[in-house]
């Protein structure tokens, strides 16, 4: 694990000033999905999470980091970052995927960059494609995009060089730099507020990072639930429905009495935690199944990312999305109940 030093906490609120056409939103989402699905060829994974995170030593590995303030001051192989303020001041050999209130890319990127945030400033060079989705997106004069740039924002300013095609959409678009080919769409009227979509994306990215952290630090316990889902899926569905109904009934009954309120609160927190984690276990199960069917020898965390992206992407399907969410939560929660029941003796002995 790379040395991480916590200096101070400085959180910044996201900006709420972006309207984009719906076709552009789905294009950006598609790019984000592709960026997450394509696996890296690295041999391992480094994960970090803290209030303030400063990377001041080189990381010859994938780096996944989240915090109120994130500073990357030394070279890393590839980067996934989420936070209030994100500053990348050193070269990244591979891809950069970042989401935050303010994202500043000062170092060069050897691969592609996929960024969502309130304010996005690109000062470094990007060898491949840039996908940016935010309130204000600025490509500075010192920056060169090696291939294409797809940008959606309230204010979009290209003052640098885009070797390929620049596709920009926003209420205010300025293209004083160079682009091999430009597709500019200026929105004169309020069309679609980006804030809800941005919050959904940030929440999904946070869940993705949470799952990677759990998979990194307790892989055995994390994989225990997907294995039971894969082995007994119908039983997990039944346990999920029964567990949710039974849990709610017990909590309501305990809430009736003053004595039972503290226990009810603990049970409610446990129930909410289970519901929150349920989709992560289903994501791992989906990734394992797909890699098995396609005979892909991917690492466990790569399978998890594949399953996560496919599952959360399916949530956006009209009409079917809510049904998929409910089914994923039920089967994931059932897998948790099944795992806890099978290990009840060990859990009781430890407690």
Description:
The chain is of the alpha/beta class. It has 2 domains: 4-194, no CATH class; 219-350, no CATH class. The protein has helices at 22-37, 194-217, 219-231, 233-256, 261-293, 300-314, 320-342, 344-350; strands at residues 4-5, 45-49, 52-55, 59-72, 76-88, 96-105, 113-122, 130-139, 144-145, 149-158, 161-170, 172-175, 178-186.
List the helices and strands and how they pair.
Elements: E1 4-5, H1 22-37, E2 45-49, E3 52-55, E4 59-72, E5 76-88, E6 96-105, E7 113-122, E8 130-139, E9 144-145, E10 149-158, E11 161-170, E12 172-175, E13 178-186, H2 194-217, H3 219-231, H4 233-256, H5 261-293, H6 300-314, H7 320-342, H8 344-350
Parallel strand pairs: 2-4, 3-4, 4-5, 5-6, 6-7, 7-8, 8-10, 9-11, 10-11, 10-12, 11-13
Antiparallel strand pairs: 1-3
Helix pairs in contact: 2-3, 2-6, 3-4, 3-5, 3-7, 4-5, 4-7, 5-6, 5-7
| Shape estimate | elongated
Strand content: 25-35%
Please provide the count of β strands. Answer: 13
The value of Rg in angstroms is 22 Å
Number of helices: 8
Q: SSE string, helix = H, strand = E?
A: EHEEEEEEEEEEEEHHHHHHH
Q: Write down the oligomeric state.
A: single chain
N/C terminus separation: 30 Å
Q: How helical, in percent, are the residues?
A: 40-55%
User: What is the overall pLDDT average?
Assistant: 81
* Unreliable stretches covering 5 or more consecutive residues: 1-44
Largest sheet: 13 strands, mixed
- Structurally, the number of domains stands at 2
- Counting helices, strands and paired strands, the structural category is alpha/beta
